[in-house]
TrEMBL record:
Species per Swiss-Prot/TrEMBL record: Herminiimonas glaciei
Positions with biased composition (Low complexity): 306-328
OmpA-like domain boundaries: 159-279
Pfam families for this protein: MotB_plug, OmpA
Coiled coil: 106-139
UniProt xrefs under InterPro entries: Bact_OuterMem_StrucFunc, MotB-like_N_dom, OmpA-like, OmpA-like_sf
Family: Belongs to the MotB family.
TM region positions: 28-47
Gene3D superfamilies from the UniProt entry: OmpA-like domain
The protein, known as: Flagellar motor protein MotB
UniProt keyword terms in alphabetical order: Cell membrane, Cell projection, Cilium, Coiled coil, Flagellum, Membrane, Transmembrane, Transmembrane helix
NCBIfam families: PRK09041.1
Membrane topology, from the record: Single-pass membrane protein
Region spans: Disordered: 302-328
Length: 328
């Protein structure tokens, strides 16, 4: 009994762990992951809902160095910065220089100067064509005798070749669109020359002011001038000129007189062949093009063009009493 009182008492203490087998570090990692994902989706949402201009502003903000933002200039080595120069070449003090920069001076193109040069070259080409036609008239036997009926000059539209009537040598039959035999010879020779140049042509027929007895109600000088212009076009093509070179064929009756002082002068009966320059050709091909008046300058230019067109006065036409058809 005495031994039982001396028996030692053993106390077992069990240490409890709060994290179990893996501990609690995974919770922190998971929280960081969730936070990163929330930040990522928030960034995606912001990028999707921000306008293009705002995005560019944000990009410029992050791409601009603090030095440039505070000191100004296009880069940290710009001449407007506090420390001039920069880049690989430390000897350069005006602006910055990057590696591989092309030091060749940039070429500046003056559009107006280029257009003026093209126009000058075109005028010289038309002058050379004029000399060529004049030389052909002097050397070709079939044209020498018609020298007085061929008038050649340069206008704002291009090179103009006018075949006019003489009192005793009309180009067409009386009041008809039938060409005389010598008129065909003239047009055939001209066709050979016109086919060698790239410019397109415009044909216009003209009559004198002698009216038809029926007046303007039926067949008149308008129809006659148009028919004669078309007859000349067909004869030029028969002489070898390409069909696609003709851009415009018009009949002007006696609206544009050669001799305005004498509306009945036979010289007013003529065919005009104009070798068009680039500007005149564009004005014809783009005459149906819509004018953009969305801005103030375009609207003002359109109004000025219309006003200038209204101020052009036609050549005076002397009134004449209706008479029977005569040579036109």
């Amino acid at each position: 009994m005495a031994d039982e009182g001396l028996r030692p008492i053993i106390i077992k203490r069990i240490k409890k762990s709060g994290g179990g087998h893996h501990g609690g570090a995974w919770k922190i990692a998971y929280a960081d992951f969730v936070t990163a994902m929330m930040a990522f989706f928030l960034l995606m949402w912001l990028l999707g809902s921000t306008t293009k201009g705002d995005l560019q502003g944000i990009a410029d903000f992050f791409s601009t160095p603090l030095k440039v933002a505070m000191a100004g200039g296009s880069g940290s080595g710009d001449s407007s910065s506090v420390i001039k120069g920069g880049g690989k070449d430390m000897t350069r003090i005006d602006g910055q220089q990057k590696k591989g920069e092309d030091l060749t001076p940039a070429k500046n193109f003056n559009l107006k100067a280029a257009e003026a040069e093209l126009e000058r070259q075109e005028v010289n080409r038309l002058k050379a064509l004029k000399e060529r036609i004049e030389k052909a008239i002097d050397t070709i036997p079939g044209l020498q005798q018609f020298k007085n009926q061929l008038l050649i000059d340069i206008t704002t539209e291009g090179l103009r070749i006018q075949i006019v009537d003489e009192k005793n040598r009309p180009m067409f039959a009386l009041a008809r669109a039938e060409l005389q035999s010598y008129t065909k010879v003239i047009l055939h020779e001209i066709a050979k020359i016109l086919n060698d140049i790239p410019n397109r042509i415009s044909l216009s027929g003209h009559t004198d002011a002698t009216p038809y007895s029926s007046g303007e109600k039926s067949y008149s000088n308008w129809e006659l001038s148009s028919d004669r212009a078309n007859a000349s076009r067909r004869e030029l093509i028969a002489g070898g000129m390409a069909e696609n070179k003709v851009l415009r064929v018009v009949g002007l009756s006696s609206a544009v007189l050669f001799d305005s002082s004498d509306p009945l002068n036979p010289i007013n009966r003529r065919i005009s062949i104009i070798v068009l320059n680039k500007k005149a050709e564009d004005s014809i091909t783009q005459e149906n093009k819509k004018v953009d008046v969305s801005d103030k300058e375009s609207a003002q230019e359109a109004v000025e063009t219309a006003v200038n067109a209204q101020q052009v006065k036609p050549a005076p036409v002397a009134p004449a009493a209706p008479v029977a058809p005569v040579a036109r």
